Amino acid sequence: MPRLGFRALRILGTGAVVPDEAVTSAAMDERLGLAPGTVEARTGVRVRYVERGSAADLGARAARKAVAAAGLDLDDVDVIIGASGTPDQPLPCNAALMHEALAPGRPIPAWDVNASCMSFLVALDLAATLVTAGRYRHVLIVSSDLASVGLDWSDLGASGIFGDGAAAAVVGPAGDTGSGVLSAGFETYSEGAHTCEIRGGGSRWAPDRVEGDYAEWGRFRMDGGAVFRLAFKHLPRFVDELLDEAGLAMADLPVVVPHQASHHGLDWVRQQFGVEDRLVDIYADHGNQVAASLPSALHAAIESGRLRRGDHALLLGTGAGISLGGVVLCY
Predict the structure, then answer these.
(1) 62, 184, 67, 188: which is closest to 126 by C-alpha?
(2) 111: three-class secondary structure by DSSP
(3) Of the listed 93, 114, 117, 196, which one is catalytic?
(4) What are the residues whose beta carbons fall under 8 Å from the beta carbon of 58, sequence distance 6 or more?
(5) Catalytic residue (choose from 99, 259, 263, 312)
(6) Does 288 qualify as catalytic in the annotation?
(7) pLDDT tens, 290-315?
(8) b or e along 119-138 (b: 16 or more beta carbons within 10 Å of the residue's beta carbon)?
(9) What is the largest CA-CA distance in the chain?
(10) Please, which residues bridge with residue 144 across strands?
């Protein structure tokens, strides 16, 4: 792939929200008739949150926080990019539904980028190119996922790890601040395309094309072991290439912000790359929030002061496909 080089881009503001309803692993033990401590031991999650409304409304809450943190008004935004893996409905795009919830004073464009758990990274990379090209000035990226919908609770490995949430970022020109994207890369290994999927809801397995209870076609299914093996087979070389393009070493990064896939996945990243104290880990108190996981962790790093202006950071994700993605940036 051609190297784009440094693309000036500044994260102007971020925001993150979780639903009001918390579901602890202790409560799940009781509901599922399991011994105390079973769900947390198997999933690594203490508490996750469940949204009973829409992903669009939850995303709009995070978007308002991000716009305010950027010191802007909604009418300063030039485009809304929905960057989620679980939209409210196939049509229209979730960005249009968030546009409706936010009700900007002008008809700014709104469209989706869906790369499952890596959607925020893809949107950030795209925004860097669009801002650099002068197409847009202020871009609002919103990741909002209701991961709790359509889960098979008989399979804790594919259900107990998930939680709902939303996070957003406003990005724009960097001026002479030095902020920007140093490198970005994405790869898909489609031999794993069916290891993590929801088959229903589209045209391939539409209701009039299948027999039986259609609810089963809307269930999330995942072969966690296969996803893990395929993704982590390629990640070491993938990360080395990202850092090489950025002209940095892992030791130069104060923080590494990964997709919060699972406790096993986060532990693997810690050990593989030697980033024990630098890994941003919010998983135990959020679960895997699909595409909202990574920007929620990024927001936590900024809010806590772990990521400061001028710092370099690696944002790293894996997703259904099976796909890998990463961005090295100067915050």
Answers:
(1) 184
(2) strand
(3) 117
(4) 17, 19, 51, 144, 146, 164, 165, 166
(5) 259
(6) yes
(7) 999 999 999 999 999 999 999 999 99
(8) bbbbbbbbbbebbbeeebeb
(9) 60
(10) 166
The model's confidence at residue 225, banded by pLDDT at 50, 70 and 90, is confident
- Taking CA atoms, 286 is separated from 11, 18, 178, in Å, by 23, 8, 32
pTM, two decimals, is 0.95
Inform me whether the pLDDT recorded for 330 exceeds 90.
Answer: yes
253 has a pLDDT exceeding 70: yes
Residue 158 has pLDDT above 80, yes or no: no
Question: For 88-113, what is the mean pLDDT?
Answer: 95
Q: What tokens does 213 get? A: 């209870």
| Encoded amino acid at 214, one letter | Y
For residue 98, the model assigns a pLDDT of: 97
312 is catalytic: no
Q: What is the pLDDT of residue 258?
A: 98
pLDDT at 2: 60
CA–CA distance, 62 with 165 (Å, rounded to integer): 9
- Is 94 an annotated catalytic residue? no
Cα-Cα-Cα-Cα dihedral sign, residues 47, 52, 54, 58: negative
* Both structure tokens of 189: 């290994």
Of 99, 286, 288, 330, catalytic: 288
Q: H or E segment at 6?
A: none
Measuring CA to CA, how many Å separate 297 from each of 37, 126, 153, 316, 317? 25, 20, 26, 11, 12
Structural domains in the chain, sorted by start: 7-172 (3.40.47.10), 180-330 (3.40.47.10)
Distance spanning both ends of the chain, measured CA to CA: 24
Nearest to 113 by CA among 140, 75, 77, 146: 140
DSSP secondary structure of 51-71: -SS-HHHHHHHHHHHHHHHTT
The pLDDT value recorded for residue 303 is 98
